[in-house]
Amino acid sequence: MTDITFDKSRILFEKASKVIPGGVNSPVRYFQPYPFFVESANASRLFTNDGNVLIDYCLGYGSVFLGHCNQQIGSEIKSQIDKGNLFCTPTEKETLLAEICSKIIPCAEMIRIMNTGAEATMHSIRIARAFTRKTKIIKFEGGYHGAYDYVLNKAGSGAAGQEYSDGILSESASKTITVPFNDIESLKSVIDNEQNHNDIACIIIEPVMANTGLILPEKDYLNSIRNITKQNNIVLIFDEVVTGFRLALGGASEFFGIKPDLATFAKTLGNGYPISLLAGSREIMSGLAPRGSVYQASTFAGNPISVTAALKTLEILIEDRNIIYPIVARTCDKLVEALRNMVQDKKIDATINSIGSMFQIFFSDKIIRNYYSVKSSNTKFFMDMFKILLAKGVFIPPSPFETCFISTQHNEEDLEKTLDAYETALAKVKKY
């Protein structure tokens, strides 16, 4: 198979760089020497401006669970467009979406619909502070919850590998405590510290970390955090922007059987359309304006287009949940098992983490259990592999600090081509 090229994308990137900072509208989209440009997509494939066809394992960083250009969702969207796309008044569809989500999400007694994951997590922290009358928050090394001051004291992959971000107020950063993932003793130590003990409003956590590679919680880790938060009157926030509706219909909360106080969702909820939600107990959520005193507002929140996409996405997932989730998990397991055999046969030091429809390979002989173990992996080998895979028509996120995703539309042909590309890539990486 001849390697594909991206000559037109190079020209388009040079043009973009003159009017867009860095040539991209989100730093995770950039990789050296330049990113490729996409013209269209369908099912599991991307079609670039260069005329190339790529098998997509990025999937909008996990958003496109049901595949690109899902016809059922598209048909509903087209019907709604004929009726209007923005009213800035309540619609019946918003209530219907909230009612459906309240039956699916374990902690969801009340729901506020928003636009992005960052927006949902930001307001979850604000309402937790208001509810507890405390000021400090705890997050985890490498965890990414959006690009705003509360949580960018130390960034995950959302800051393109940067550990700190200029422009962050030191006063805001000083209220955010960062601890290692999968280390319950470190968390206990921070909470028991005399300076923190009575001033921790919330713990925000990705129950499965998916923005610093893919890191799974160790046995009883999440249960221990739930118990600690209850004992210390700390609001527990599950950031399920990635795992929500993907890991299970009710997200990681359903998957692990743990009920947080608040949870945030986005990505899979709209299958690529911009929508998010904040869900939680009635007691806490009642603090949001206009009922309460925590102000949150948005012109585009609950817009009919995104709500329509979410309603259809959930309809499909609910109707076929006993088919969809086992199938994508089996597809992922098949791919991961083949990759493990490859690295073993080639005697490559590599670890592959996976869960449900998510996976990632790390060039390391160590267990990947936290941010530091990802940082200590061979990132050069990863980028060498990424470039070879891309030349062979397989697109994975361009960083080991991200996660690869499977959609319902990946098929046997995709897997065969993908494994052939990995075979070539791993053989070349081994020679380096």
UniProtKB/TrEMBL annotation:
Biological processes, Gene Ontology terms: protoporphyrinogen IX biosynthetic process
Pathway(s) this gene product operates in, as recorded in its UniProt entry: Porphyrin-containing compound metabolism; protoporphyrin-IX biosynthesis; 5-aminolevulinate from L-glutamyl-tRNA(Glu): step 2/2
Location, primary (coarse class): cytoplasm
GO terms assigned for molecular function: glutamate-1-semialdehyde 2,1-aminomutase activity; pyridoxal phosphate binding; transaminase activity
Residues in the signal sequence: none
Matches recorded under PANTHER family: GLUTAMATE-1-SEMIALDEHYDE 2,1-AMINOMUTASE, GLUTAMATE-1-SEMIALDEHYDE 2,1-AMINOMUTASE 1, CHLOROPLASTIC-RELATED
Protein name listed in UniProt: Glutamate-1-semialdehyde 2,1-aminomutase
Taxonomy of the source species: Archaea, Nitrososphaerota, Nitrososphaeria, Nitrososphaerales, Nitrososphaeraceae
